C-alpha cells in the first residue's frame, strides 16, 4: 500500500511538471490596420482574434540548458467560413517555417508561459 501511495504521488508530481506550460503567447497582426498584438492563449481554451478562433492544444519549452525553443500545437478556425484553416505545430525559433498566413491576419508563436 505504501509503495502504491508513493507511486501515485510521484506520478502526480511528474504529470504536473510535464504540463507546467499553461498558456502560449502569440503574435497576431491585423493586416487591414497594420497593428500588432500579443495574445495570451490558455491551453485548450478558445481565443478569438478578428474573425479567427484559436485553440492551443499543447505548448512546450525546452529546459534552460538546451537551445531555447518553444513549440505549440495550434488549431485556427475561420469563423466567417466555419473552416479549419490551420492545424499543426508552430515553432518560436522559426516563425516563417509554419505560421498562419491569412489574407487579413498573420499569427505565430512567441513563447510558452509557465504555470503561475
In short:
This protein has one helix spanning about 1-20, and strands at about 20-30, 35-40, 45-50, 50-60, 70-80, 85-90, 100, 105-115. It is mostly beta strands.
Outline the fold blueprint.
Layout: H1 2-18, E1 21-30, E2 35-42, E3 46-49, E4 52-61, E5 70-78, E6 83-91, E7 100-101, E8 105-114
Antiparallel strand pairs: 1-2, 1-8, 3-4, 4-5, 5-6, 7-8
Your description of this structure?
- With 116 residues, this protein is mainly β.
- The chain has one domain.
- Helices cover 15% and strands 53% of the residues.
- The chain is built from one helix and eight strands, in the order αββββββββ.
- The strands form two sheets. Strands 2-1-8-7 form a four-stranded antiparallel β-sheet, with no helix packed on it. The chain has a four-stranded antiparallel β-sheet with strand order 3-4-5-6, with no helix packed on it.
- Strand 1 and strand 2 form a beta hairpin.
- It starts with a helix and ends with a strand.
- The relative contact order is 0.23.
Amino acid at each position: 500500500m505504501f509503495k502504491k501511495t508513493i507511486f501515485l504521488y510521484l506520478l502526480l508530481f511528474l504529470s504536473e511538471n510535464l504540463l507546467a506550460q499553461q498558456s502560449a503567447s502569440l503574435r497576431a497582426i491585423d493586416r487591414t490596420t497594420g497593428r500588432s498584438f500579443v495574445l495570451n492563449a490558455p491551453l485548450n481554451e478558445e481565443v478569438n482574434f478578428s474573425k479567427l478562433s484559436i485553440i492551443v492544444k499543447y505548448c512546450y519549452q525546452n529546459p534552460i540548458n538546451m537551445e531555447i525553443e518553444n513549440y505549440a500545437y495550434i488549431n485556427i478556425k475561420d469563423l466567417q467560413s466555419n473552416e479549419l484553416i490551420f492545424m499543426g505545430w508552430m515553432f518560436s525559433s522559426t516563425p516563417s517555417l509554419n505560421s498562419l498566413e491569412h489574407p487579413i491576419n498573420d499569427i505565430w508563436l512567441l513563447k510558452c508561459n509557465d504555470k503561475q
